[in-house]
Amino acid sequence: MEIYKFNKENGKRISKFNSDFVMSRIIQTEKATHIGCMHLEENGVIGFHQAVVPQLLLVLNGEGYVCGDKKEYIKVQSGDAVFWEKDEWHETKTDKGLTALVIESEELKPELFMPLVNTCS
Question: Would you say 100 and 23 are in contact if contact means Cβ atoms under 8 Å apart?
Fold first, then answer.
């Protein structure tokens, strides 16, 4: 399991075409990619399971805890991105609620776009 940041502080200011915003790059793929939004309410959980393909969880709102194979939980919050390799066991849970996008694809390399802040076994 790896934790990345996609918050505003790790983005790049864009001014081209008279624009004024910050872009935090996340991922680029050429193969089929599935993107979904997960809404975990208070005490919600995405149960302990194996990733079918590499998976990137982007926490948009709220906070919670994630773990990998060893079930050692790490706190995550808005702006954190969690990456699990194919076949890696993992779980996500929250006490207060959490909204996250999930990106699943055979071809995910988040290290090309976001700074790594934590690696967990």
Answer: no
Distance of alpha carbon 95 from alpha carbon 8, whole angstroms: 25
Separation of first and last alpha carbons in the chain? 6
Number of domains the chain is built from: 1
Give the residues of the chain that fall short of pLDDT 50: none
With tokens 């990619």, the residue in question is: 33
Domain enclosing residue 110, as ranges: 2-119
- Tens of pLDDT, residue by residue over 29-49, are 888 999 999 999 999 999 999
Q: What's the 3-state SS for 49-102?
A: EECCCCEEEEEEEEEEEEECCCCCCEEEECCEEEEECCCCEEEEECCCCEEEEE
Mean pLDDT for the chain overall: 91
Nearest-angstrom CA–CA distance, 83 and 115: 12
Q: What is the pTM of this model?
A: 0.86
CATH number of domain containing 40: 2.60.120.10
